[in-house]
Amino acid sequence: MHRSLKCNDARAAEAPGDLQRLRIAPPWALLLLTLLTGCPLAENYTDEAGPRYSGDHRTPGSVSTEAPASITVVTFNLAFSEHVTEAITALSRPPLAGADVIAMQEMDAASVDRIARELGLAYVYYPASVQVDDDDFGNALLSRWPITADRKVHLPHDDPYHQRRRIAVLATLDLGGTLVQTASVHNATPIVGLGGRLDQAETIIDALEGTGPVQVIAGDFNTSDPGSLRQMVKLFSERGFQWASDGVGDTVDSVIGGFPLDFVFAQGLAPLERGVDRRPAGSDHHPVWVRFAWPP
User: Fold this and answer.
1) pTM for the structure as a whole
2) How confident is the model at residue 147 (pLDDT cuts 50, 70, 90)?
3) How many CB atoms neighbour CB 140 within 10 A?
4) Mean pLDDT computed over 168-183
């Protein structure tokens, strides 16, 4: 999906050509562009506690009380939640069907609830900001297992063009008595620079530190600029995380080629298999999945 650059459009600056231009633009040029176009600053949700949305559409007996042989984690950026029906179709077919955890980005509350209802999942959702069409824009975690705690984490380095805020959504899942700490991530575009996005990733890791031995961090890390993927993986490795989705390849299509932007990192879990579902799913991002051995 490729859009023309317009006010308050978080995805507009993510087209690879725009990324390269914006990444090297000096601050005065960005200020001048803002003044000339009259684009307003983003409306961010700065409250640590919300807005918060949650629900539980699991049916009685839908989850076994016995430990599963494996668990599957999916991450999926749905591109402004514009094609929810297509997303539900994708998430309902193998290899994504029956996923235990789904981390989603660029979501609004109604879309998250609809997906959770159709798939029979519990969920928690926090918006980070408001889009130009007045829809919320944020991250969600959907789970086949009980969600026992959750919170929003504000990430540093609002983008310098709109001052748009990015967040991570953290949730504790109870998998048959074993607590799993999860995070749904949507890092800023390369306009904030590699250092800024590494700071954002480290903020998420710090937020989970000491919460338990089993952790999964998944989402859109916006690693489209040269060297950023290697540096992001290096950071997670140094903090004790395995790149669980290593080797799946590009996760976003563009007119100039594919880009690896969406990843799953894990601690305390052994990945068995992984992949990208490249069939149409209603987004320019493809869902990434990893199946882990269980118990950990």
Assistant:
1) 0.89
2) very high
3) 30
4) 96
